[in-house]
Amino acid sequence: MRVPYAPSEPPNEEARPVYERIAERRKPRPLIPLDLALLHNPAMADGWSSFIGAIRTKTSVPEGLKELAISRVAVLNSAVHEWDIHAAIAVKAGISRDAMQAAFDLPVTKKATVQKEGVQGLTGEEYAVLCYTDQMTIGVAVEDDVAGKVKEFLSDKQVVELTATVAAYNCVSRFLVALDVGECNGRGMKAVKDL
């Protein structure tokens, strides 16, 4: 990593409750390199953990679609660690390997005609989520047709949740890649068959 990791144990009593909250969220796993990078500033690490924890566990977007979006962000931003973790979760959540391969291979959708039946192994819903993710990640603005297609199968609340998920994981991936957290830059992403 481009800076040393913060200590894995609280350096002072003020930081202890933050370390404990993050460790509780990670249970049974230990703190991960991302945590140890963020813990240079315990207050920032605490807010990050709370926000990403809510994105991960307190949304109503179907798990597979959420993880598909996160995986696509990882591909677009070359975030190896993010892909390796979240693509495997997407498969466990029911996204087909063909759909994951499409998420890995499809060119970026800058202008879209969202097709009802999807493309290249994707359902129409999966393809709409990828188009939405692409436009948010690459161009920031989302076309009305793409947003409209997502609204056909997600409630208003879920559209907000999907948007927050894509935004949050763009933040995560940019942090991971900029600092080379986990020393993953330059390493290849897991092949879909190995997820």
TrEMBL record:
It holds the Pfam family CMD. Transmembrane segments: none annotated. Residues 42-104 form the Carboxymuconolactone decarboxylase-like domain. GO terms for molecular function: peroxiredoxin activity. InterPro entries: AhpD-like, CMD-like. This is Carboxymuconolactone decarboxylase-like domain-containing protein.
